[in-house]
Amino acid sequence: MTEAFETSITLNGREIPYRVVHSRRARRLRITVADAKVIVTLPVGVKAAEAEKMLRQHSDWLLKQLERAPRRKSQAHTLPEDVVLLRGEARRVEVVQEAGRKARTRVDETGGRLIVRVPAGTRGTPRQLALDWLKLQARAAIEEETARQAQRMGLRYRSISIRDQRTRWGSCSSKGTLSFNWRLIMAPPTVVTYVIIHELAHLRQPNHSKSFWEIVAAYYPDYKLARSWLRKNAAAMRPADIEPGR
Question: Does residue 76 register a pLDDT over 60?
Answer without folding.
Answer: no
